[in-house]
Specification:
This protein is α+β, with helices and mostly antiparallel strands. The chain has helices at about 15-25, 35-40, 75-80, 85-90, 90-100, 105-110, 110-115, 125-130, 145, 215-220, 245-265; strands at about 5-10, 30, 50, 60-65, 70, 135, 140-145, 150, 155, 160-170, 170-180, 185-195, 200-205, 210. It folds into 2 domains: about 5-50, Uridine Diphospho-n-acetylenolpyruvylglucosamine Reductase, domain 2; about 60-265, Uridine Diphospho-n-acetylenolpyruvylglucosamine Reductase, domain 3. The chain is built from 11 helices and 14 strands. The protein has a 5-stranded antiparallel beta sheet with strand order 4-5-10-6-7. A 4-stranded antiparallel beta sheet has the order 11-12-13-14, with helices on both faces. Strands 1-3-2 form a 3-stranded parallel beta sheet, with helices on one face. It starts with 6 loop residues before the first strand and ends with a helix. Bound molecules: flavin-adenine dinucleotide (FAD).
Length: about 270
């Protein structure tokens, strides 16, 4: 394999990372490196500069703030999984973090990297959308409903850095996931929550991008039981088909995972 050059920077602060990012249009932020390094090895990404933000203390925190938990973008998945605060206030989020990949991935991967990458089978997007969370960058706040714009794409602008995510504490919430047995990515994962603004059902893994299911949300608003959504079929036309499973298989999985999530949330 022919090596190609890039410049590695270890950012000492968020401000420094932003300055380097501004100066180098082909630069990329490096968080846990669980996706980016693999993409570089496969030549799917060839950044001119890597700006390592994994050591920034200002991005690594979990704190309760009123009726929400705010988690820094540089917080690793295992830290969310074992956090006493998250387990106390939003146990479904801790459970979701615990289900990501394997211990090595959970000890390297970070919340901000996962959201910025927006893999169609990633877990965090389901929690962010299901809990009606707010993504904050160094420039603005973005509502979950506006953040995930398509497969591997988000509302982030050029040079925008995810700094933290505010997850509102909900009355009830649960996540049920059918993992790919090899990678542990979601074949279908459903996050269900009773939030202040109503019931939300967010699905990852099944389609090109995380999405909500309004029909299930309306049924659960009237009757928050697995029975209430038993008859709701997911249209397979917009779902993913690949070597791991057909769209019809995933459509069925979404129904099963949604009912399991509601049962767990009860
Ligand atoms: C074997 C394996 C199994 C996995 N299984 C799962 C799974 O079951 N569920 C799941 O959800 N995920 C899974 N993952 C993905 C993993 O958990 C990480 O979430 C993912 O790799 C991205 O996070 P990262 O910190 O590694 O980001 P990186 O790879 O460092 O970066 C990813 C992208 O995000 C950008 N970026 C990073 N941080 C920021 C920021 N703060 N602001 C803006 N842009 C940023 C980078 O420039 C890059 O483009 C798996 C990964 C592997 C390798």
């Amino acid at each position: 394999m022919i090596p190609y050059p890039f410049t590695y920077h270890r950012a000492g602060s968020l401000a420094e990372a932003e300055t380097i990012l501004k100066a180098s249009p082909e630069a990329k932020l490096l968080a846990g490196g669980q996706t980016l390094i693999a993409a570089m090895k496969m030549r799917l990404a060839q950044p001119s500069d890597l700006i390592d933000i994994s050591g920034l203390k200002e991005l690594s925190f979990i704190r309760a703030a009123g009726d929400a938990i705010v988690i820094g973008a540089g917080t690793r998945h295992f830290e969310v999984a074992i956090s006493a605060e998250v387990n106390r206030l939003i146990p479904a989020l801790a459970h979701l973090a615990e289900s990501i990949g394997d211990p090595a991935v959970r000890h390297m991967g970070m919340l901000g990297g996962s959201l910025a990458n927006n893999d169609p089978a990633a877990d965090y997007p389901a929690a962010v959308l299901g809990l009606d969370a707010t993504i904050r960058t160094q420039r603005r706040s973005i509502a979950a409903d506006d953040f995930f714009t398509g497969m591997f794409s988000t509302a982030l602008d050029e040079g925008e850095i995810v700094t933290e995510v505010s997850f509102p504490v909900s009355a009830r919430a649960a996540y049920a996931k059918f993992p790919n047995p090899a990678s542990r990515y979601a074949m279908a994962g459903v996050f269900v929550a009773k939030t202040k603004s109503g019931v939300r059902v967010a699905v990852t893994g099944a389609g090109p991008c995380v999405f909500r299911v309004p029909e299930m949300e309306a049924a659960l608003a009237a009757d928050f039981t697995p029975h209430a959504i038993a008859g709701i079929e997911i249209n397979a036309a917009d779902l993913n088909s690949d070597i791991h499973g057909s769209a019809e298989y995933r459509a069925n999985l979404v129904g099963v995972m949604a009912r399991r999530a509601v049962a767990a949330a009860q």
